[in-house]
Write the structure tokens for this entry.
Amino acid sequence: MEVSANRLDRSFQMHKHEYEKAALRVLESGWYVLGTEVSEFEKEFADYMGTRYCVGLASGLDALWIAFRLLGVGHGDEVIVQANAYIACVMGITMNGAIPVFVEPDEFYNLDPLRIKAAITSKTKAILVVHLYGQASDMESIMTIAEEHNLYVIEDCAQSHGAEQNGKMTGAIGDIGCFSFYPSKNLGAFGDAGAVTVNSPELYEKFRVYRNYGSEKRYYNRIVGTNSRLDEIQAALLRVRLMHLDEMNEERNCLCTNYLTGITNPLVILPRVRTGCKAVWHQFVVRVDSRDEFIKHLGSKGIGTIIHYPIPPHLSKAYEYLGYKKGTFTITEKYADTVLSLPLYNGMTEDEQYYVIEAINAYRG
């Protein structure tokens, strides 16, 4: 048997006719940019999130850098972010001339609130919280710190569509929630797409204007903006997937429960969920000290895996200029050397999953 690390076609097949109907509806409408599909998706996603507003954008990265731009976070300002985040999170900071201040993650792979205060300086302007792997961060503690120090909180929810802490959705707690709808996400489009969620009317209006060349209406440009628009077809397809998001997240939860109860190999460190939090399991990430051998073992049985992520941003060539050296963030670097994402996707069969579990439990190092 062969089991891929991910299968996007399975989730498409589940609701194939609904997706096809939505796409055809847009094609037949003759309106392909910033039409009713986008505005309806924005309303529906805001309602789902429990926020006042949503603004559709072209990508998750656009959501991040535009968020910092509109909050006035710029040259010389510092933004606290966990060191094990995906590099796009850091790009959202540095594209505005701001400086990422890395801190170590906690045992749930998310920003450790206990390390935030020591990283705050007179230049700190914001905290970027990345809800990694579909696990909700400790937003209650982070918001308390942010309020004490008058800092903005931006949530990167690219991997946490539907995750919660104490009944509150990630993306509805900080000042701005930034979402990617890249195809592999829990709420995935069929190409690049993104959005922000906000409760502030002022921020809502700023995003709407900024995404469309800084224009309030055609040819009347209030500011120098950008072109970052969620297109009509992606919005229509996202509306279909949003209707099924909770059931698809529940399916992933069942699959991960099987992993948690079925994997008994002591060489494999399983993920944990923070008390009071609801995970949506964008990835099922384990840690194995002898990762390369483990990957070979699974690969020999036709089982695919992915490393999220092998190189932390502070050790990447792109951020060499920040001056960090190996050994600066030991927890982050340990995670980077040992984490591995197991096969997980909507439509994964029981036979496929138990084949993976049996192979994992048979590993001897």
Remarks:
- DSSP finds 13 helices and 14 strands in the chain.
- Residues 245-262 form the longest helix (18 residues).
- The mean pLDDT is 97.
